[in-house]
Design brief:
Chain lengths: 224, 290
Amino acid sequence: MILFENVSKKFGSTLALDDVSLEIKQGEFVFIVGPSGAGKSTLLRILTREIQPSSGKVMVGGIDNTKIKDKDIPSLRRKIGVVFQDFKLLDDRTVYENVALALEVLGKKDTEIAKLVEHTCRLVEIWDKRNLFPRQLSGGEAQRTAIARAVVGKPDVLLADEPTGDLDPKTAWGVIQLLNEINSWGTTIIMATHNQEIVNTLKRRVVVLKNGKITKDSKEGKYE
Amino acid sequence: MSRSIFYARRNIRRTPFQAIAAIMVMFLTFLSLLTFILLAAGSELALKYFESKPQVIVFFKEGTTTQDIQIIENALKQENRVTKTKYVSKEDALQIYREKNKKDPALLELVTANILPASLEISTKSPEDLAPIADIFKKEPVVSEVIVPEDVVQTLTSLTRIIRVVGLATVSFLMVFATLVIIMIIGFKIRLRRNEIEIMRLLGASPSFIRNPFILEGIFYGLAGGILAWTLSFGLLWYFTPFLQGYLGEVHALPVDPLFMLILLGSVILVAFVIGGLGSISAVKRYLRI
């Protein structure tokens, strides 16, 4: 599904990723852990082709995303849903409109959009908040909206960059349960996090990054 | 495309003051353009009228016989520079005088055919031929007066030229200005929506999905300003037609030909489309790096 082969990324003289090789299979739930500046976000940004690696190969669904042309980047991103720590919701749009945006960019028809948005919003339990704006939502509701937007287009992979970073423990746990459920549908989930408790409780694959290098990759790992 | 139109409409609705400012600038540009075009067309018609009218009018002395005038008219027919001659007898002159002053009986009372001179109206091929023809008649003993409206034509010719030059310069400047305003407003909106654009990119929006609403917005400003300016100029022209007709006299420039106004509307739409499109495409290329 996803393959990093000797991937390195330099920002000026700083080495953000150093010869990273990693394979993630379809349907896996993988935690990427490590201290700030370890290269977690860089890894995720390379996957979405926000940035190009300095060297190495990155395969997503059998396609080398370092070699695809600029015009093919949107197609790549449609296969990947992204959830951010700061939600990145549009303040001037309602919950419904924020979720619908992901389908609008795919060119879906309004009737189909209405159906899928309702279905997804009900799944993440924000349907009754559909007419509210992001500023009227709690942190948990905002993150659920962001998750709904990320999964409504049925991506193959969901990237979550510190999705619980700004949430209280109870709400954070609710978000994780939701991601776990999404994973049970067959969606591959890659989550960058600092949250030791969540990683240790869920007992999923853990990849530890330190100074841009993978120092540990364990199947039912722990965040030590 | 319908999605792009929907997004463009929403962008316009959410920043109404910028939209009004952009439309106003486009409106002023097109109002100036239309004013100069209408002035140039009007002065062109006036010029044509004066050029086609009998340009040299020769009045004959009392006692000149019809035969004398006939000889002169025959001689003129041999002249290459003359396109047409028209003899106006004393009775014809009285008829014309009565027609022109029919609303003022006091002016008609004492006037008879005897006090009005017979005349010959001579049209020439070009305004340059006026003076030599007039000179020939000035030497004729039977001629009492020669009127040459050469000055009117010269004034009109230079006026038309000035309108064209000043109009072209002003309109060119305003068009550049309008394009820059569109670039500025669309550029500003792109910066304002940077966050939204970034999210759209991450969601896999194609470049055209992101760009098209901005381009459509620029085109809308151009079209709205242009059509408003055309509507106002057409309305004003229609409203003032009776007044202007009295002022223009025999120059039949009004009422303006509807076909001419429709052609003008088509041209305005085309130019507005180009300015709006060009401005917004430039802004998108400059500020929206996808």
